[in-house]
Amino acid sequence: MAPAASRLRAEAGLVALPQRALAQYLRLLQLYPVLTKAATSGILSALGNFLAQTIKKRKKENGSQRLDVGGPLRYAIYGFFFTGPLSHFFYLFMERWVPPEAPWAAVKRLLLDRLLFAPAFLLLFFVVMSFLEGGDAAAGAAKVRLPHRAGPQAASLHQRPFPISLFPPCNNLRFLEVTVTGDLCPHLLSSGRAGGG
Fold first, then answer.
1. How many CA atoms lie within 13 A of 62 on its CB side?
2. Residue 81 CB burial class (10 angstroms; 0-12, 13-18, ≥19)
3. pLDDT tens digit at each of 197 positions of the chain
4. From start to end of 25-148, where are the E strands?
5. Residues near 125 by Cβ (< 8 Å), separated by ≥ 6?
6. Which one-letter DSSP state was computed for residue 168?
7. Whether the Cβ atoms of residue 42 and residue 80 lie closer than 8 Å to each other
């Protein structure tokens, strides 16, 4: 009887693991919001790039393409130092500038995000990525003027699947949603395109 009870406790612990992990994540968001968001963004950005490369490699007929280990590292650096902190402060700014109770708040926030933040963020993305790849800032900025040549990175920053948050304002899960839909999903969606990953 003791082994069965022990097994039941172990299974119950495994079931509760996601709940405990989420509770710990939310606690870290309360204690260290910028650092937690930076780490989340860095990890998910690197994971998205790695998965996109893996999917692209599997789709190749000969499978001889090697994974670029520098890609996930570059995306982790960008996610940790730029995406996480900038998103944190931008959404704080947006909550103060366009309060949730304001008329048309969701539309105003969407327009502010898409017309102000997204273009500036796209420019920053290409400049930083160009620098991290050993190029110069001008080459990265030139990609913004030529989005049809920019590849899937332009799509990943311009076409987030969920532009309006599913979570209410001030909810810490909103950042996780934006990070997953903005960093991880586009890499996976663009992995099948030419030049993706």
1. 3
2. middle
3. 466 666 656 566 667 788 889 999 999 999 999 999 999 999 999 999 999 888 888 887 666 678 899 999 999 999 999 999 999 999 999 999 999 899 999 899 988 988 889 889 988 998 999 899 888 777 777 776 544 444 444 444 433 433 344 444 445 555 665 666 565 555 554 444 444 44
4. none
5. 78, 82, 153, 157
6. P
7. yes
Instruction: Write down the residue that tokens 């692209």 correspond to.
Output: 56
Token pair, residue 88, equals 């944190």
Rounded to the nearest 10 degrees, the angle between the axes of helix 70-78 and helix 118-132 is 140
Which residues fall within 8 angstroms of residue 196, CB to CB, at 6 or more apart?
52, 56, 151, 152, 190
HSE-up of residue 131 (Cα within 13 Å, Cβ side)? 11
Place of tokens 């900025």: 141
Q: Does the global pTM surpass 0.70? A: no
Burial (Cβ within 10 Å: 0-12, 13-18, ≥19) of residue 136: exposed
> Which helix (H) or strand (E) element contains residue 129?
helix 118-132
What's the burial of 190, exposed, middle or buried (CB within 10 Å: 0-12/13-18/19+)?
buried
